[in-house]
Design brief:
It is built from 14 helices and 31 strands. With 604 residues, it is of the alpha+beta class. It has an eight-stranded antiparallel sheet with strand order 11-10-16-7-8-15-12-13.
Length: 604
């Protein structure tokens, strides 16, 4: 155990984590030069295409220092705030972290969030600057920011370049010197010899079943040993144990302090879970302290474009759940869209990634409803008088005359921005109902703003507007603060007097008229005409607040007539008029809306 070092790399998105990991794999000879490629740990096609890390990826490296061989277990983590649950799990499996800061951008808001998580986990932090070879690097300025952040000496901050490999060899040496080896279990208890491990991730293989990724806490494990999940109480036999190099490589055994995998052979869903303890079948100790369950903050309904694909979608969501345990789903149905699933996500990017994976990996065409958040309502009238209820879907949001109180989640937000953009940001913060708190200088010519705002407003394209307003220089991180009173109403869209639940949304009373006008105008521009005149209306506050009329198809029923008495033409036109009137009456509420209309309405 004394020659094992477990560590992770934490940083803001696009600060060079995966590139630094590439150089470490090269220097340690973990991957032959002929097999080396950029972002080698980002194995998912979507990760490589977007240049971001979505899933944490463990890898084992061997390094020789002062005639001693060391085992370095690295866990590469995502940088985007939506995947912070992945980061929190990785930090539980290691003793130290490299805090990587881009020398061209400096400390960003998400850097602060991941740093706090590492500190709370009691990890040893090694500060490192990346991209020091760039002509845009501000090495001394960024060093001063890191010194202020960690209260460390400038000499402790290492300088590296993932592109050239500069400083990476020294970084590996510093990891061995400063990150402590795994702690030995107490010798006076039987637990020092008994096998116990913590699951920090898992995946599903069609042939091998569930493969759990574990950090061994005590004892050792080899193949063909009976084991048990302490929480789910399911027993199994280890079919194979191995390490990540970075592909799965079978080994004879895994010992205390090591990171590896166990093939369980289990093909039932719901048995393995992140945070469970894998131990010997005779182990009588309680489970190890696991992880807090992730709490979804964004909800959206996902429907297959063709109801024939419903079963395929259900199976796809179940399989994705095995590789991403941070989203939730439950079945629901809609009169307009058929059967689908109500899904909870950790953020807007998380939603986008999951739907994209469903499309690519399972070849599914989907309709995704407008993302929303949860509201807590208290009834003042009706059969539920005095009762509190959590509302997940705008279509189920009660009429305001039935409610005495509405509460919504608020978030604490940190924005780091150059001083020159602060004046541009103020109208944006006002537009999104933000409450500005303290501000402080943060490094050279930058300011850190602390504010609070409704999660509902954060989702209303706030990220994109912030980047646009600050020319891409501002960064943001947030965490849920709690619930507050909300001044919101449900807005419905009606087509031919029928409410379309897929287009319902909960909006601020302050902007409900503006939102209704915008939604009605957009639907009017994309909805195909019918054989009769129909109205598109926006309804809120118990009244119609926006309306547009879609003209009917017109046909000259007298075009085949030449000459003759005018009354013949008049009779045909009157007959057409009566027919359209009858069609409108019968067709009310049964307008055929193509799926592409739903897709266009959901997209910004």
């Amino acid at each position: 155990m004394d020659r094992i070092r477990n560590f992770s790399i934490i940083a803001h998105i696009d600060h060079g984590k995966s590139t630094l990991a590439d150089r470490m794999l090269e220097i340690t000879g973990t991957i032959p030069a002929r097999l080396m490629q950029d972002q080698v740990l980002d194995s998912m096609e979507l990760e490589r295409e977007r240049g971001i890390t979505i899933k944490m990826q463990p890898v084992r490296m061997n390094y020789r220092l002062a005639n001693q061989d060391y085992i370095l277990n690295l866990i590469d983590t995502p940088g985007h705030i939506d995947f912070s649950y992945e980061v929190s799990r990785a930090l539980k499996a290691v003793e130290g972290s490299i805090l990587l800061v881009d020398a061209t951008q400096g400390v960003q808001a998400q850097t602060l969030t991941t740093l706090n998580m590492a500190r709370e986990a009691g990890l040893k932090i090694i500060p490192v600057l990346s991209k020091v070879d760039s002509p845009l690097a501000r090495v001394e300025d960024v060093k001063s920011e890191v010194v202020k952040l960690l209260e460390c000496s400038p000499d402790e901050i290492l300088q590296t370049s993932g592109r050239t490999g500069e400083g990476v060899d020294r970084l590996l040496q510093e990891i061995i010197k400063h990150i402590p080896p795994p702690k030995q279990a107490a010798d006076d208890t039987s637990s020092a010899k008994d096998f116990r491990s913590l699951i920090f991730d898992f995946k599903y293989s069609t042939h091998k079943g569930v493969i759990v990724f574990v950090r061994v806490i005590s004892g050792s494990i080899s193949r063909n040993v009976p084991l048990t999940f302490k929480i789910s109480k399911k027993t199994f036999t280890s079919l194979e144990v191995g390490i990540f190099s970075p592909n799965e490589v079978a080994v004879e055994s895994l010992g205390a302090g090591e990171i590896g995998y166990i093939v369980t052979g289990i093909k039932e869903p719901g048995i393995a879970s992140v945070g469970d303890t894998v131990a010997g079948v005779n182990d009588m100790n309680p489970p190890l302290a696991g992880y807090m369950s992730p709490r979804p903050v964004v909800w959206a309904s996902i429907y297959p474009e063709s109801q024939d694909d419903f079963t395929t979608l259900k199976q796809a969501l179940g399989k994705l759940k095995l590789s991403d345990s941070s989203y939730t789903y439950e079945e629901e149905s809609s009169g307009a869209l058929g059967r689908g699933f109500r899904c909870g996500f950790l953020g807007m990017l998380h939603l986008e990634i999951i739907t994209e994976r469903l499309h690519r990996e399972f070849n599914l065409d989907l309709v995704v409803t407008m993302p929303t958040i949860t509201y807590e309502v208290t009834y003042k009238a009706g059969p539920k008088s005095g009762k509190k209820e959590i509302i997940y879907s705008p279509a189920h949001f009660p009429d305001e005359n039935l409610l005495s109180e509405i509460r919504e989640p608020w978030v604490n937000v940190v924005i780091i921005t150059p001083v020159t953009y602060i004046s541009n940001l103020m109208p944006l913060l006002y537009e999104h109902e933000a409450e500005l708190g303290n501000s402080e200088n943060f490094g050279d010519d930058r300011t850190r703003l602390f504010l609070k705002m409704p999660l509902r407003e954060l989702m209303r394209n706030f990220f994109d507007k912030l980047k646009s307003t600050s020319s891409g220089f501002a960064s943001i991180s947030y965490e849920i603060e709690g619930m507050r009173d909300a001044n919101v109403v449900r807005m419905d869209i009606l087509v031919a007097d029928e409410v379309l639940p897929a287009f319902s949304r909960v909006v601020s009373r302050r902007i409900v008229e503006q939102e209704a006008e915008s939604a009605v105008e957009k639907l009017h521009s994309i909805l195909p005409r019918q054989m009769f005149v129909m109205k598109i209306q926006g309804k809120a506050l118990g009244r119609i607040i926006s309306s547009r009329t879609v003209a009917a198809y017109s046909k000259d029923v007298t075009q085949h007539m030449y000459g003759g008495d005018i009354t013949r033409k008049m009779k045909l036109r009157e007959k057409q008029k009566k027919g359209k009137k009858k069609m409108k009456e019968r067709g009310r509420g049964s307008v055929d809306i193509p799926h592409d209309v739903f897709l266009k309405m959901m997209r910004n």
